[in-house]
Design a protein that fits this description.
The complex is a heterodimer of chains A (about 150) and B (about 140). The mean pLDDT of chain A is about 90. Helix content of chain A is about 25%, strand content about 40%. Chain A is built from 4 helices and 6 strands. Chain B has a single domain, classed as Hotdog Thioesterase (Thiol Ester Dehydrase, Chain A), CATH 3.10.129.10. In chain B, strands 1-2-4-5-6-3 form a 6-stranded antiparallel β-sheet, with helices on one face.
Chain lengths: ~150, ~140
């Protein structure tokens, strides 16, 4: 089950120039998802780097991992189109640098979903090698408000 | 210290520079920096189109850049490069929107064999919005 960029734009709130998932390769809504991000030299975040040292900045890698998890949470679920907020990121690890021209495969898994706080794990792979990983806690604002004291 | 002073520490050019001003720098110990967010910044158009919010990953990059200024102030000219190793925990307490002025305070907690552990807290109008622990490594330049 592959989905392209036009479907991705429809189901979640991120847009150009802050959308870092190009393709959905596999997806089981609210369980797990596999996506792909191609890093090309033409993108805006490479402009700020010196020519001798061009690599994908760590914050872009983090955002790509979070966005694939968000797609797993929102694709054809009751949370589609909802506003989501970051609550906590844990154990973010980087195992190497990513050059322009690389394609990162992102695997995301929802671990827990309770009272509007969703915990998930995302991992990025380049050529089957783990390059970055993180745990993240995301809040579904409308769901969270149901359990907030008035 | 203004923007030209910051460029001495940072190799990044304008589109990726997320520190506007250094308020206080205690070399190798602590630093306080300011970043103001404007709706005109490119990433605001995509996050989100009708509801601009500063992305959590941009807040992490602001904190990393403040920390990088602090580490480089101590190790400048020693032929070292700084790499991010692990971010054990990052907490987000409040959303940051265009017009907010972010005050970033970074302190080095431990430095051993080129491994630096540090705590960074970001505040808007005195209220904590984001904080985290950062582990960096100093490597020899190739």
């Amino acid at each position: 089950m592959q989905k392209n960029i036009s479907k991705i734009i429809k189901i979640q709130n991120n847009n150009y120039p802050y959308l870092f998932v190009d393709k959905i390769l596999e997806l089981d809504p609210l369980n797990f998802g596999i996506g792909k991000k191609c890093f090309t030299r033409n993108e805006w975040y490479f402009d700020g780097q010196s020519d001798s040292e061009v690599f994908v900045p760590e914050f872009i890698q983090i955002e790509a991992l979070v966005q694939m998890l968000v797609i797993t949470i929102q694709y054809e679920t009751k949370y589609e189109g909802e506003l989501l907020n970051d609550v906590k990121f844990k154990n973010i690890e980087f195992f190497g640098s990513i050059d322009p021209g690389s394609s990162m495969i992102i695997k995301s898994k929802v671990v827990n979903n309770s009272r509007g706080i969703i915990k998930g794990i995302s991992e990025g792979f380049i050529n089957d090698e783990l390059i970055c990983s993180m745990e993240c806690f995301i809040a579904v604002i409308s769901e969270l408000n149901k359990y907030s004291p008035n | 210290m203004n923007k030209s002073g910051i460029n001495l520490f940072s190799k990044k050019s304008n589109s990726l520079n997320f520190i506007d001003k250094i308020i206080k720098l205690d070399c190798g110990i602590s630093v306080e920096c300011i970043k103001v967010f404007s709706y005109n910044e490119s990433y605001m158009q995509g996050h989100f189109h009708n509801n601009p919010i500063v992305p959590g990953s941009i807040l992490i990059e602001c904190m990393l850049q403040a920390l990088s200024i602090l580490c480089k102030s101590k190790n400048a000219g020693q032929g070292k490069i700084l790499k991010v190793s692990t971010l054990p925990v990052i907490n987000f307490k409040r959303t940051v929107i265009p017009g907010d002025e972010l005050l970033i305070s970074a302190t080095i907690e431990n430095e051993l064999d080129g491994r630096i552990t540090s705590k960074v807290i970001s505040k808007v109008e005195g209220i904590e919005v984001c904080s985290g622990m950062f582990c960096l490594v100093l490597l020899n330049e190739y």
